[in-house]
Amino acid sequence: MPFAVTRLSTLGSASGLFLPMSKKEVTYGAKRAGIPIKIELTHENATGLAWAVELTGLSTNEIVNLLLTDELSNFRSDNDDSYPHETIGNWKFKDRASAERTLKWVITRVRRGSRAKFPIIESEITELGDGRFEIDAFITRRNGEYDRVC
Known about the structure:
Layout lengths: L2 E2 L3 E4 L5 E4 L2 H11 L4 E2 L3 H14 L3 H13 L10 H7 L6 H16 L8 E8 L5 E8 L5 E3 L2
Antiparallel strand pairs: 1-4, 2-3, 5-6, 6-7
Helix pairs in contact: 4-5
């Protein structure tokens, strides 16, 4: 069930306010960024979206944009929460280069503000049976706590 993707522009990076772009800007911006104008949903996502449309009376575009606004606001550069690296770091990657690039981003994010040897980060990239790659990263804090990063 394909649907049109509407890109959003931000009004100030720290404000987190989103304004819809005109259709002309969306098409131009999406093509320039290599983002497809139409995407295919999995059966599960299409079913969930249809349920939400029926429940709320909102259009498919309204729901998708609300969900993206809520979700993508977690990825603002001023967000210090672990949600962004835990989310992206748990995805499965099509190639090793993408996994390595993502792991480097995760490590930079986790170590942000650290000047000493802590936190210690142990990580590995594993090739899965289907040819995709996954990241495993763990952190040891100064107090000895050991946690999974992604």
